[in-house]
Amino acid sequence: MAFDINQVMELLPHRYPFLLIDRVLELDEGQSLTALKNVTINEPFFGGHFPVYPVMPGVLVLEAMAQATGLLAFSEMGSEHRTKLYMLVGIDKARFRGQVAPGDQLVLKISLKRNMRGIGIYQCEARVDGELVAEAEMMCSSQDRQP
Hints:
- The protein is of the alpha+beta class and 147 residues long.
- It has helices at 5-11, 58-74, and strands spanning 23-28, 32-38, 84-96, 105-116, 119-128, 131-144.
- Helix content is 16%, strand content 42%.
């Protein structure tokens, strides 16, 4: 199963300039997800990071991974996702192995390792042209939205 930006926006509360997922390429509901972020020179962070040598900040690569975990979790919730936020609660084993630049397609591969007491633990990878640029283990938890 795959879905486009409209379905991504249906599931995630993020919006421009902070929505960092353009499309879901593959989904094995409740198990794994592959998502895509097209990185363009028009991204607002490139004006200052770095003007002469634009590089996507590592924390935003991690945020893209976190958003992908939310898509994986929300994809099996049905309409219940409308009353929830999927919050990042921890990051372990984060490593940056390459840079992400304008023109790159950032491919995010997320897999659920386990779910413990409402906290999902995910193995996350980010690749550009098949090369690993970042990886991390993320912990996320569903919370009720506050009015």
